[in-house]
Amino acid sequence: MSTPSRGRERFAAVVVFCVGLLTALLFTFVIYPHQQTIHQVLDLNHFGQIGINLYEGKGFSLGDGPTIRRGPLYPGIVALVFEIFGYRNQSSYLPVFLLQCLFNGLTCLLAYAIAKRLFGYPTAMLAGLLCSITPVVLRYVPEIEVEATMTLLITAMTYTAVRCYQDKSVLWGCLLGIATGLASLTKAVALFYPFVFIGLLWWNWKHNKSEWGSSSVRKIIIALLIGLGLTISPWFIRNEIVTHGEFHGISSNASGEFIRSFINVEPKFVFLQTPFGHGNWDWQANMFENGLLKKHGMEFIARKNGRYVLVPMNLKMELKKELLENHIALELVMKHPLWFLWKEFIQIFTFWYVVETPKKSIIVGCIALFCLGFGWYGIMAARRQQIPVEPVVSLVLYFNGIYALILSFARYSMPVYPSLLPLTAYGLYWAFVGRKRMRFAAHRAEPAPRPMEAVSP
């Protein structure tokens, strides 16, 4: 098989980027506004509101003083867009959506680059095009949510991890740390992946000492941790200052999400007996969480004039809620260890299919089954070919596992797909093309049979 020229590869990369950008534009501005399958909400989790407050000089706030409830990167991007283009009303979000379409194109380009680095040009083209048309990758591009940004950064983590693992490079180790830091400033769940990668490096060094020097491994680890530390430390310092040393992290509410996940694994949601969305799970999870808080003298949902309303939360209340929920979460684990372990096991699966309604969950689950099935086949083929796919596999498993530990449904798997799709593409390529080519090459390589000698009578 002839190797494609560098010019052809560059052209293919441009095509993948443009297709990813165009499909995102088409979905955001043509399909999404005129469909009724997805409930349209502009700023459900108030990232846009924080961006507005930053733009208007009110600080990183949900409206009542500073907040530690969200990571800073995505609201900061929204605020930067407003700083460039101004803010008047909801129509001012148009440049944000255009930027998220651009992010989608770059994500597809990175998926192409990962596959090309590991598997070569044909698989790279397939991975990039799959990324551009997979519905779950496009799902949150038309909304003011972190997913489009998070998807790009997780895919950047995967690419830098692959480069670092293959090249044994200090530079790529540092870039992996920076990419992880930026992803963590979007959503803190990415924060601990470097320690998984360090374990992977150490394992590889133990089994391949002739190729890896211990000093190289140490240098890569140091560079990775420096890149991560320099990226996240300013926000850690900010949170230390605004909370007077009471909160040490990027964003709060991990324990709250953990508590809510005990409702997530009820059979009616796991087996799709009732809609997960439309306030069903959210309301029950809120009431479960609120009931546990109430036993400790605090509520975030109160009954007023015969109806339930959210209690306004300032920084002092956020801190109080965080400390109480840390205690409650630990108490739940200690008192109900089997329930906790069952919850973690079930959420490994809910990560891939549970969305708003049973019908949508089946569709999303089928997409996941297709991608994971061929992804597994791609891993097996890569192992036979001795292609090092461990960084990609470890990252997909990491996010599956970390969300299963906290709170897990299919929304959280969507940013992982562009990292998974290169494996899926290789599985598809190997199933329908690669094996046939190998058999054909083996057949051509067989020596021609020697002519039979004449036998004398």
**How many strands appear in the DSSP assignment?**
2
Report strand %.
Answer: under 5%
- Tell me about the largest β-sheet: 2 strands, antiparallel
* Low-confidence sequence ranges: 450-457
Features:
457 residues; mainly alpha; two-stranded antiparallel sheet; 2 strands; 69% helix; globular
Describe the structure.
- The protein has one domain (6-434).
- It has helices at 6-34, 47-55, 73-85, 94-119, 121-133, 135-138, 147-167, 170-186, 193-207, 214-242, 254-264, 267-270, 280-294, 315-335, 337-353, 358-384, 390-405, 417-445, and strands at residues 301-304, 307-310.
- The protein is mainly α and 457 residues long.
- A hairpin with a 2-residue loop joins strand 1 and strand 2 (307-310).
- Helix 1 (6-34) runs antiparallel to helix 4 (94-119) and helix 17 runs antiparallel to helix 18 (417-445).
